[in-house]
Sequence to fold (316 residues):
Amino acid sequence: MDALAGLLDGPRARGAFMIRACFDPPWGVRVQDEAPLTVMVMARGGCWITPDTGDEPVRLGPGDLAIARGPEPYTCADTPGTAPQALILPGGECRYPDGSSLNGSMDLGVRTWGDRPDAGTVMLIGTYLMRGEISGRLLDALPPLLALPAGVWSCPLTPLLTEEIVRDEPGQEVVLDRLLDLLLISALRAWFSRPGAAAPAWYRALADPVVGRALRLLQDDPAHPWTVAALAAEAGVSRAALARRFTGLVGEPPMTYLTGWRLALAADRLRDTDLTLDTLARQVGYGSAFALSTAFKRVYGVSPQEHRAGGGARHT
Fold:
């Protein structure tokens, strides 16, 4: 598996919140649903997305795509100065700015919401509701808001999503979940492949002949009892040279990176498999379920069992 495939492997939507939002200006919607990741595609018209982080608003035109990483709120509107007319809260709940319920007043049919179905602005929105649906390594690699203009990415899934999002067929939820996963992977592949893309430090470090060799060894065989000395011997440099170069390029020492990699793998496999904790511990390089549980809870704030049962962990 190449590095990019390893980073993108893992989106698994489960009953994602999918909607076709249709508005005529002036319009504004404040999103404070605390969702870990939301994908937005402009099917018609345009909008501005203003994050609460203080960053500059981002303009989307027809065919453009944006990805917002939660839990920070943001506002979508026809102009950056338009006041929100609706709030999106956790679980897809919709309210007026004063907190009163919308009571379905903006429902326009199957997964369609807004002013009128043929409005001048139409946005397709897919929201991952649980952090466990997205690899923590991927979330950590993303900025709060990223945008891809239509001219730098092309995805045949957009027209299909446009058709499928308003269908009410048996199994439709599963179809939309998989389309959302594929749309996200396609978009992120284009984003990480851009010249000067803000890929994570470890991903850029893979191009280094020494550190890249060490990273691949750690990623390919996390269960091996690696030491800095063993990695240095494999990379053909001294222990001190590897430690210095690895830390400089990746941003953390080799053994710290290995711990994070092992726990990230464990978090994903807890979500995607029903392996026992003992088996999983051995697969990712821990001698026992107890050792894995202790390290996992220290980093993620919950036990492996709680992560598996609840669908997500809080990376600290």
Q: What stands out?
A: The two ends are 28 Å apart (CA to CA). The longest helix spans residues 172-192. The CA atoms of residues 105 and 312 lie 33 Å apart.
